[in-house]
Amino acid sequence: LQRLRARLARSQSTLGQGLLNLLSRDSLTDEDWDEIEDLLISADVGVAPSRMIVDELRTKVKVTGQLSPDQVRTLLREQLVAQIGPDLQRALHVDPHGGHPAVVMVVGVNGTGKTTTTGKLSRVLVGDGKQVLLGAADTFRAAAAEQLTTWGERVGARVVRGPEGSDPASVAFEAVKQGIQDGVDTVIIDTAGRLHTKTGLMDELGKVKRVIEKQATVDEVLLVLDATTGQNGLTQARVFAEVVNITGIALTKLDGTAKGGIVISVQRELGVPVKLVGLGEGPDDLAPFDAEAFVDAILG
Ligand code: GDP
């Protein structure tokens, strides 16, 4: 976790340093405040939340007068943590209940990191002593099932897959069935993320979910979002949120962008918490999201 924090700090510190520098100017002019707002917006914080943060900071500075660097840091930290939501429920539901494994569906546009996140998550769970079974419900790309199988072998999780082009729902059904038979703790279903048409997607994911629900409950629907795609990724994410009930976001590739403000805009946009962050391509590069630790990494 320490290593991941360091990686996060490395990618996000330009944002934190920029904000701290601007806020430390002697007397802040209107232009300075505009610059602060622009910096937040350019870090994908979103227009409305950026305005809110600036307004709050401005009011505080007006009351307190000139601030010491420590006070600036404390104030900024407070604002960012408040925007990110320190009290949101970010725990993943991955424990079996009612005699069934917990079922996690992983959804999102292709290339965002679904399979990688599924693999990394299963590694964390296996590391915690859980038995995990993976379902390769992205049946449209042979490479996706291959990739998941490799992850399964690497982390010690069985993988259920179907022939290429087979019905994703039947693979999901079979995976959950076998998960129940084997008495595993968690079944994770990696789904296909073709953004063909909204109805197509809805039919497909809806069917996968319905079929799983014949045997167990779907405890988590994790939407994987690539942090480097910014507002574009957010638009695509919205389509998924419209077709399935998302319970959490896995924000990947935060190691490859300084725009950590996306955490704020995505939560605001979709109304669900970021639960996991991806900080690299390796098997251990996944961390639970924590608002305070995230802000501390940004501020250095
Ligand atoms: P999928 O199509 O959504 O299943 O995406 P993949 O899991 O195949 O990932 C697409 C690419 O993104 C792969 O090259 C991954 O190694 C890479 N990737 C996934 N997560 C991360 C991350 O957190 N950081 C970085 N740097 N790369 C990632």
UniProtKB/TrEMBL annotation:
Main location as per UniProt: membrane
SRP54-type proteins GTP-binding domain residues: 273-286
Catalytic activity entry: GTP + H2O = GDP + phosphate + H(+)
Protein's UniProt keywords contain Membrane: yes
Residues that bind GTP: 108-115, 190-194, 252-255
Keyword Hydrolase: yes
Superkingdom per UniProt: Bacteria
Location(s), subcellular: Cell membrane; Cytoplasm
Keywords annotated in UniProt: Cell membrane, Cytoplasm, GTP-binding, Hydrolase, Membrane, Nucleotide-binding, Receptor
Mode of membrane association: Peripheral membrane protein
Segments traversing the membrane: none
E.C. code: 3.6.5.4
Subunit structure and binding partners: Part of the signal recognition particle protein translocation system, which is composed of SRP and FtsY.
Function in brief: Involved in targeting and insertion of nascent membrane proteins into the cytoplasmic membrane. Acts as a receptor for the complex formed by the signal recognition particle (SRP) and the ribosome-nascent chain (RNC).
Protein family per UniProt: Belongs to the GTP-binding SRP family. FtsY subfamily.
Protein name, as recorded: Signal recognition particle receptor FtsY
Organism whose genome encodes this protein: Actinocorallia libanotica
Shown part of the complete sequence: 82 to 381 of 381
